[in-house]
Amino acid sequence: MNQAALHALLASRANTEGLKKLFDLRLATNATLIKELYFSLYPKDEVAFEKLLDVLKSLFEKRPEKLQTQDLERLKKGNWYQSEEIVGMQLYVDHFNKDLKGLKNKLSYFDELGVNFLHLMPITTRPKGENDGGYAVNSYHEIDKRYGTKKDLLDLTKTLRSKNMYLMLDFVVNHTSNEYPWAKKAMAGDKKYQDFYYTYADRTIPDAFEKTLPEIFPKTSPGNFTYNEKMQKWVMTAFNSYQWDLNYTNPEVFLAMLTNLSKLVNLGVDVVRFDALAFLWKKIGTISQNLPEAHTLVSLFKVCLQTFAPGVILLAEAIVAPREIIKYFGEGMTRGNECELAYNASLMALLWNSIATKKTGLLYKSIINIPDKPDSCGWINYIRCHDDIGLGIDDGFISEMGWNPTGHRRFLLDYYCQGLPWSPAKGLLFMFNPKTGDGRITGSTASLLGLEKALDTKDTALLDEAVEKIVLLHGIVLAYGGLPLIYAGDEIGTLNDYSFLKDNTKKEDSRWVNRPHQNWEIIAGLDDATTPNSKIFHRLKKLISIRKKNKVFADNSNVRLHHSGNDHILLFERTDKKSGVLVIANFNTATEVVDASAIQKMGYIKNSAFEDMIQNKKIKVSSGFLEIAPYQLLWLKKS
Ligand code: GLC
Predict the structure, then answer these.
(1) Measured between alpha carbons, how far is 251 from 258 in angstroms, rounded to an integer?
(2) Phi and psi at residue 232, in whole multiples of 5°?
(3) For residues 554 and 86, what is the distance between their CA atoms, to the nearest angstrom?
């Protein structure tokens, strides 16, 4: 039995046992695993381990009682995050509606669309100048003034709870800013805090590391170490020079970060986004990503969190190779005991690949080869987020398609980043390295799918096509197994925001082009059914409402890809004991066909007709084929 199931069992007895007793029980059942994980990272550290057990007790005591009660309700309910009723949105609070109070005033907007899960981008204190959108943290729980106060956040989380809405916040677990109190103490010469980071008096170790470490931001922050004049030492900075990597080989760091985590979740957070967790452990001679110790560490965080806040779950932000991502659900003895959720970055990249190539072969090849996830875990399905779109596609599979991996990646970059005059996309290149040809893509969904170019050139056919593509991709992530997450503004076709070019702290980072402000004027005009914005909004709203009404969309590990024999079509099925939905998506600019007899055999055609849940009608199959219009999406109901 995995830990979550065990806890659910314990929680079902909660009426007779007090909250505290239940915590003791949880600690007792988890103690062996905690010990094993802890000692595998920090061998022979008995004293610190005893300290950890005391810390866990005190963290539980500090958890507000209403959250302790909610934890138990969640455990009784089982895997709440797998429900078909959850639909998420990601947003920057200040770009959405000024601050936390402003956000609270707009909760009815989410109700209208059907969104009930919010991922707020970092809201804690950060350096004044460059701060990587708040991912350089000065605190893990103090709210930055620009967003409001701690009270504002507590008010918001209280309201969200009362509306059965969920909140996800980031825990920037890999690094702090160079202004974080520990970094300041380290700079002042405090050896204890210098050991909280990877600091070195000379280049010997940094040079040894650099031999195999890749660069995350090669253009703006080349190399992985920064010389700090005050400390007269090199410090590891895998991301930006002002983001100092935490040294988890030091158990003190783990303990202190666990305490930070508890303070964050006690604000009423339901899902913790474990930021950049692939980087948590470093070893000379490796790329220092996805190392086994990083997994052990994540699992240790998870099992500890499970003792003092068992209703809170973790999302793995591991934008790494497909076969590596799945490992963040846990493997072997920790299967199901790392993160409950992970970004489906593979599906995301493959959808963009399918739009550019108009074909789905590479998507099938890649997805079918990903091992099954544990049943208690799930994907966050998304089209794009606040970051760049990386082309995390296996080179081997690209070759098997008969394409040259380097050439194919160059084609994708050219297609999306204005390298091909005929392409409808208007994206920007991110961190392009002319030496290797590697690069990533930035741009809003609408601009990448042609809406911006269509409006610029007043091309109505292109405009209609862009709307269809925006709905198509959203419809796929809304129907796929897992929790769908929409980027705020994409639901109304928001275009690229070029204002970052005028801001010195942002202009080198083109990810800001895809972090536009929410346009409330457009939203006020959504009743005008003729605008592309309103068409997108109302069609997504409908898809969301269909999803929420049909239990088959709950994540019961019930997604199955089927080959259709047509290279332009994606076909997958969601089934449960009672029902089934067949999702059919056409990625081509022409009408495509699928053999109707195959669909009939699957149970989706009866009396020569199929029922499309989206159009809410039965459609006769007059030829022997199912005809799917350019970029059309069908959700067929099993009859
Ligand atoms: C994650 C965030 C990204 C940030 C990085 C460093 O990848 O999504 O925005 O730059 O972590 O914290």
Answers:
(1) 11
(2) 55, 45
(3) 9
> In the prediction, which pLDDT does 28 show?
95
Q: Which residues of 216-228 are buried (b: 16+ CB within 10 A; e: fewer)?
A: bbbeebeebbbeb
Tell me if residue 539 falls in helix, strand or coil.
helix
Output the pLDDT for position 16.
45
Q: Tokens in use for 14?
A: 């909660």
Q: What is the Cα–Cα distance from 133 to 243, expressed in whole angstroms?
A: 12
Please give the pLDDT value at position 14. Answer: 57
Strands (E), 294-351: 313-316, 341-343
The β-bridge relationship of strands 428-433 and 378-382 is unpaired
CB atoms under 10 Å from CB of 161, counted, come to 16
> pTM higher than 0.70, yes or no?
yes
pLDDT at residue 30, rounded to an integer = 94
Q: Which of 385, 387, 389 to mutate to test the pocket of ligand 1 (most atoms within 8 A of CB)?
A: 387
Query: What distance in Å separates the CA atoms of residue 260 and residue 554, rounded to the nearest whole number?
Result: 33
What is the model's pLDDT at position 539?
98
Q: Read off the pLDDT of residues 93-119 as tens digits, 9 standing for 90 and up.
A: 999 999 999 999 999 999 999 999 999
- Enumerate residue ranges in the chain where pLDDT < 50: 1, 16
The pLDDT of residue 128 is 96
How many whole angstroms separate alpha carbon 17 and alpha carbon 10? 10
pLDDT of residue 484: 98
Q: 618: part of which helix (H) or strand (E)?
A: strand 617-620
Residue 112 CA to ligand 1 center (angstroms) comes to: 30
Secondary structure (3-state) at 361: helix
**Which residue from 79, 77, 112, 82 is spatially nearest to 484, judged by alpha carbons?**
82
Q: What is the pLDDT of residue 45?
A: 81
Catalytic residue among 152, 275, 388, 555: 275
Q: Provide the pLDDT for residue 514.
A: 98
Residue 358 CA, ligand 1 centroid: distance in Å: 30
Upper half-sphere CA count for residue 352 (Cβ side, 13 Å): 33
- Per-residue confidence (pLDDT) for residue 620, from 0 to 100: 95
**615 CA → ligand 1 middle, Å:** 39
> What CA–CA distance (Å, rounded) separates 86 from 315?
15
pLDDT in tens, 202-221: 999 999 999 999 999 998 99
CB 231 within 8 Å of CB 186: yes
Residue 50 parent element (H or E): helix 46-62
3-state secondary structure of 555: coil
Mutation test of ligand 1: which of 120, 131, 132, 177 has the most ligand atoms closer than 8 Å to its C-beta? 132
**Strands of 414-503, DSSP E:** 428-433, 438-442, 483-487
Residue 577 in contact with residue 551, Cβ under 8 Å?
A: no
- For ligand 1, whether the C-beta of 465 sits within 6 Å is no
Q: Tell me if 615 sits within 8 A of 595, measured CB to CB.
A: no
The DSSP output letter for 124 is: B
What the chain holds in terms of domains, given with CATH numbers, is 80-171+257-551 (3.20.20.80), 181-245 (3.90.400.10), 558-637 (2.60.40.1180)
CA separation for the pair 440, 427 (Å, rounded): 10
